[in-house]
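Page 47, continued from p. 46.
Same chain as before, 302 aa.
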Amino acid sequence: MFDNLQDKLDRAFKVLKGQGSITEINVAETMKEIRKALLDADVNYKTAKSFTDEVRQKALGQNVLTAVSPGQLLTKIMNDELAALMGGEVTELETKANPTIILIAGLNGAGKTTFAGKLALHLKGKGKKPLLVAGDMYRPAAVDQLEVLGTSVGVSVYANRDSKDPVAIALEGIAHGKQNGNNVIIIDTAGRLAIDESLMNEISEVKAQTQPHEILFVVDSMTGQDAVNTAKIFNDRLDFTGVVLTKLDGDTRGGAALSIKSVVNKPIKFIGTGEKMEALDVFYPDRMASRILGMGDVVSLV
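Result:
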């Protein structure tokens, strides 16, 4: 995960190796390399520029402690700013309402249905009684896939194969969940392109009719900047409450994880880290920042 970005950041920090102090010149040279590394990782240009400007300003305003080198100090500043860039704090899922309604949205192939199953297992582990609603009536075998996932995690699935109306199915699923005492209802939806006006209108209507407490936009992190641009269009229509990054166990460049919060101003709530149903983690910005920088002791040292 982020290996290529990590290597390039390591090389950027070597500019400060052996330097006794932080200066305008060596910071400028380091920031140039860091900005290039971020752009190569498919980070949004404005995000990369504002990020490096902020790091530069803070670095030049710091006195280097005798216990650390300029490189270590800059790494600490980078860690803090990366964490802030990705949201700063953990954003919990809102599950106080009974039932809590969660709408899942995103492009085709982003991993929405698999995420719905993983989320159901995650919430079941928290003591909830979730229900999965099969609202994707377009993709062949989508209902079958959700039923298989539901069975594998021990969660009930509501499906109506006789209906092609996703709004009606969502409302039926909510009614079914209320009757059966489900306190979380997770509605899976069909993948759609942001340029498909009829499908965008359809999911807007699902939102209007179901009044979900959470709308989670699922992003394939392998798609980088394209995912961020799509998220912005979806957010303008749906005003979603959080982002889910899938496939972070793959050879991702990091652009989506580093750009999406600053572009849509919505928190990353979960990350998918593998194919197993248990491979879903709550997103911790500080941990991800340390992971990207490949650091551990520096943060506690400074």
